[in-house]
Amino acid sequence: MHLKSLTLKGFKSFASATTLRLEPGITCVVGPNGSGKSNVVDAIAWVLGEQGAKALRGGKMEDVIFAGTAGRAPLGRAEVTLTIDNSDGALPIEYSEVSITRRTFRDGAGEYEINGQPCRLLDVQELLSDSGIGREMHVIVGQGQLDAVLQSKPEERRAYIEEAAGVLKHRKRKEKALRKLDAMQANLTRLTDLTAELR
Ligand code: ATP
Fold first, then answer.
1. Which of 5, 69, 130, 199 has the smallest CB count inside 10 Å?
2. How far is the CA of 39 from the centre of ligand 1 (A)?
3. What average pLDDT is seen over the chain?
4. What separation in Å is there between the alpha carbon of 11 and the centre of ligand 1?
5. Across the beta sheet with 2-9, what order do the strands follow?
6. Mean pLDDT of 137-141
7. Cα 35–39–45 angle (5° rounding)?
8. CATH number assigned to the domain covering 2-134
9. Residue 66 CA: which ligand 1 atom is closest?
10. Where are the alpha helices (DSSP H) in the chain?
């Protein structure tokens, strides 16, 4: 599995549709200060489901949409598509190539697609959860972040390891199931009360 291409449209400084083709192995992005190198990395985190504006180096989520320049008007939406080569079947989906798209609008609306089919963020997270590029995003280490990882609390470090090992997905599912069980128990109690009242 490797990242094949990244298309940015209206994302941060990338107003026009821009596609970067990535080959297997190491890719270096070179450019002057402020030319948008980190924005490329932000785009990868964002399309994979990043929910925190801070992690994307912005104040609010809307900041990912092209805000305009002296010569170009702001845009109303940002869109990023990441295409992953899945010929080794590392992702649990029967396609040798998987495209994930995320789109957001100024009114806060957002959408995700997997191979052009609308889906939920949860579907994207589940697809990626065993791949090592899941929701905790520990695979993207930003400038100055190394210190934060080294100084993280034991339980935070445990979460990184659990995700890398594919355990986090099951923990999340267990938490969801327990919440459902709690709700069911409350319904049962209510039902028992009602039955007692009717007797
Ligand atoms: P450095 O080498 O200094 O780290 P860089 O190449 O990583 O720089 P980025 O941080 O990726 O640069 O890009 C910063 C540029 O992106 C700035 O010029 C900033 O104005 C622009 N930018 C960020 N968000 C937006 C946005 N929403 N709309 C337009 N431009 C934006």
1. 199
2. 6
3. 90
4. 10
5. 18-21, 2-9, 77-85, 97-105, 110-114, 117-119
6. 67
7. 165
8. 3.40.50.300
9. 28
10. 37-47, 121-128, 145-150, 154-164, 168-198
**Among 112, 18, 115, residue whose Cα is nearest residue 66:** 18
DSSP assignments along 13-24, one per residue:
TB-S-EEEE--S
DSSP state of 115: T
Mutational pocket test of ligand 1: of 29, 33, 35, 63, the residue with most ligand atoms within 8 Å of the beta carbon: 35
**Residue spans per domain, the chain:** 2-134, 168-199
In tens, the pLDDT along 58-79 reads 889 899 999 999 999 999 999 9
Structure confidence at residue 15 as a pLDDT band (50, 70, 90)? very high
58 Cβ closer than 6 Å to some ligand 1 atom: no
Distance 146 CA to ligand 1 centre (A): 21
Q: What is the pTM of this model?
A: 0.78
Is residue 102 in contact with ligand 1, taking CB distance under 6 Å?
A: no
* pLDDT at residue 124 is higher than 60: yes
Outline where 24-134 has alpha helix (H): 37-47, 121-128
Which pLDDT does position 56 carry in this prediction? 84
Q: Which residue has a Cα nearest atom 20 of ligand 1?
A: 13
| Ligand 1 centroid – CA 129 distance (Å) | 29
Tokens of 9: 């449209």
- Binding-site residue set for ATP: 32-39
